[in-house]
Amino acid sequence: MKTKLFTLLFTLAAVVTAFADPGSIRGSIKDAKTKEALIGASVLIEGTQIGAAADVDGNFVLSNVPVGTHKIIISFVSYQTKEIPNVRVESGNITVIDTELDEEGKALQEVVVRGNRATNTEVAVISEIKQLKPIAVGISAAQIQKSQDRDAAAAIRRVPGISIVDNRFVMIRGLGSRYNAVLINDVITPSTEVDTRSFSFDLLPSNIIDRMIVYKSGSAESPGDFAGGVIKIYTKRRPDQNFTDVAITGGYRANTTFQDVQSHTRSGANWLGLWGADQTLSSAFPKRSADFNTLSSQERAGFGQLLPNSWALKDTKVSPDLRLAFNMGRRFDIGNVDVSNITNINYSMTNQFSEIDLKLYQNGLNANDVFEKYKDSNYSRQTRIGVLHNWTFRFSPVFNLEWKTLFNQMGNTETVVRDGQRVVDGYDIKNYSQRFENRSIVTTQVSGDHKIGDLTKLNWITGFGYTGRWEPDWKRIRFQRPTPDAGSEAIPYQAVAPIDPNPIDLGRFYSKLHERVVTLAVNGEHTFGNPVDREPNKIRFGVYGERKDRDYSARFYGYNNVGNASEILRGDLGSIFAPQNVTGVDGGLTIKDGTKDLDSYTGINNYYAAYLSGDVNFGSKAILTLGFRGEYNNQQLHSTIVNERKELVNNIVFIPLPSLNFTYKVSEKQNLRLAYSSTLNRAEFREMAPFTYFDFNLLADIRGNTALKTAKIQNIDAKWEFYPTTNELISVTGFYKHFKNPIETFLIPTGNGLAYTFINAGSARSYGVEAEIRKGFAESTNRFFQNLTLVANASLIKSSVDLGQTVEGPDLSGAIQKYDLTGITDTKRPMANQSPYLVNAGVYYAEPSGWQWNVLYNVFGQRIFAVGNVDNPTVYEMPRNVIDLNISKKFKNNLELRLGIQDLLNQPVRFSQDFNHDGKIGSDVTTKGPNADQDIRKFRRGSYFTLTAAFNFGRRTIIP
């Protein structure tokens, strides 16, 4: 009887167990000595196929584990395998295992074992995004390498909701670059541009990047000055292996390479993007135009003879592009200190030639009624030097010290030859622009990471940054002659020398910008309860301080004739400004100073912030993160006017910025997120500085507005995300943003020419939806599909600006006034630079044998390039489909060859004018009907072919 009863009970238990809900096992795996996570450690239930690999934090999850007692086997290369018997799993419950592995105690040949958290792989970035409290997307160094993107600008456009303007400025969710905050290694970067708030992403070569994370929702830890996103760029830190690599790349661009072009000469080390001392103004020149222009014409001509006669152009054949890269990483010990270093040196010289169709219209009753038409032959040569030098010192498992230095210098030599007509006036026109620009960025940071017990972490960063931008001796000249009648002989061109200097006709422009930034940040995190819980309660706190100093100065000199100098002005470009012609006497030339006092300014910005945020857990599935950030900012702007320093701006603002991020875990692979944040958008120095800058390519003036106010933004985001495997994801995100006093460009009403400024609109809103998918086929039985990965993302966005009845801005004299918009411009329109849709897609294939290829696609919807008014309609940048193809092959782990074809379709870059003011550009841009739209600017960049050979000199493997 007892035997039967035991058998019955055993059978019932087996049945109950079979039909019971399964449980799960989760935990963490660490190095027993260093306490660092063992990324990729294998966890397996003996006798089953249930297993997992540890993620970037050493955590693992085994789902759908049958109820009962199991043996767990944990293994990792060069570590002793651990068996944990009698692990009990109960129905619907979670069993937690937190364990450590010991090293095997015997060295593997050519293997050095280190504890190191990998952050630059696709799995690592996906795992990081999954665990972040704010809504974020990102791209890893591994994916960048597959795409063969040359710089950060090319790489980041693969991220959902992102597009690129002018091949260097990032737009997130269709919002202009002014609405982005950019941080390098957690320190805010300065703007690299004079005219607007923008960071030039093409300054960063892709091979120095560890990963880029784009935060779409706000948090207390992030800077409050954003609406599109916060872009955090992390450069490479500690190598996972000792290595020395070199690479050389040759590039061929259709319509550029081997073409005959015209360029100009700059003295100095042009191949390094530097210029000679003769390109700068002599210190003998009087500082103020009022003092200079009171001199006699002969005295002024004497100063003019100090300027080199470097106007002549030279014919040259464009050589192929060249890129060189040297990379080295080392890890070694100094006593008990683990030391690592990464050094990266890049050099490139690239070329771009375009023939640009440029047209201006009368904008009367009929479309395409041409006022001016030109053909620009635009040739530019860019050189870039980049150096990354990072040191890491690991004193103990609880204290790390890092020193990171990044230097980038870019030189751009641009020559524009403009041929065309002023059709209505009946003149043939030939213009020349000879421009050189140099930009330099240096950042150096020292940071420390501290662990105070198991519950508290503390890190600090102190840094210094410098940005420099120079435009030495930008030369511009305009020739004209009456358009000859049919059959008649054309008369020679004559240079136009106006009585007073202006930026269009004839002159030399000099500018320089220096900006210095000192930063200090301290961040802390304290965990409550068991620190190895999957979602322990945490509190985060920190302070951020920044002092920014900028000084900008511009000088402009124009040539004018004394008496009748027609004979000289009809000469060729290389002889007109010879010293014997710049005499200041009758029949000769002299110079005048067209500089205004407001063309130079100094700016000071003091920025201080403090934040506090904490997690509130609602069971094991829901977590709420509440944050509060307070930001104090003081912007000051000064100019020296008639030898007296004048305060133009002194804005002191304190703004509280609350934030909320909520995550609900539908399952271990599926999350729902909600986020709210209050953010802001400050005006940049240049947007407030009331000096006028002339854009030769667009024939437009740009001036600042001292009356600008800080914009305030309310952000709401919702996201569903699903992670089928460690390197797969599917997500859908919706967002809504409301702006108060958004900063927008404004076309100043003027009788002729284009003059832009910056104004505060009344309000604006932007909303949309984003979708992203990353799919692999690792479980397929087909080898081709096993090696295949599909990546795609798309965004649909709508925005609108309500300017209100009046806006406040400068007139042509610089005086601030209120503009009544009645009859001047539309009071409602989309936000400037906002794209209504964005699509990115990629097919990646990688064989274990070393073959890789990918095909990448990108397109954005038409977006406002230049805001217009009734007399000058809005100009849109039109969509263009871009397809890139990359193929690479590794040979014996030492040599890699890469072939890249970018912009395979070579569709035209096209800017079109909304003549009929219906907010869109139609397909009819050739007729003169009332509904036709008009092409303003159109050209092709040319498909780009690159061939790279990369060689490594042996790697000593370091297993993370």
UniProtKB/TrEMBL annotation:
Domain annotation TonB-dependent receptor plug: ranges: 135-230
Domain of life: Bacteria
Keyword Signal listed: yes
InterPro entries registered for this protein in UniProt: Beta-barrel_TonB, Beta-barrel_TonB_sf, CarboxyPept-like_regulatory, Plug_dom, Plug_dom_sf
Residue ranges of domain TonB-dependent receptor-like beta-barrel in the record: 463-904
Keyword presence, Signal: yes
GO CC terms: cell outer membrane
Cellular localization per UniProt: Cell outer membrane
Keywords for the protein's UniProt record, in alphabetical order: Cell outer membrane, Membrane, Receptor, Signal, TonB box
SUPFAM superfamilies: Carboxypeptidase regulatory domain-like, Porins
Cited Pfam families: CarbopepD_reg_2, Plug, TonB_dep_Rec_b-barrel
Family from the record: Belongs to the TonB-dependent receptor family.
Protein name as catalogued: TonB-dependent Receptor Plug Domain
Biological source species: Dyadobacter soli
Source taxonomy: Bacteria, Pseudomonadati, Bacteroidota, Cytophagia, Cytophagales
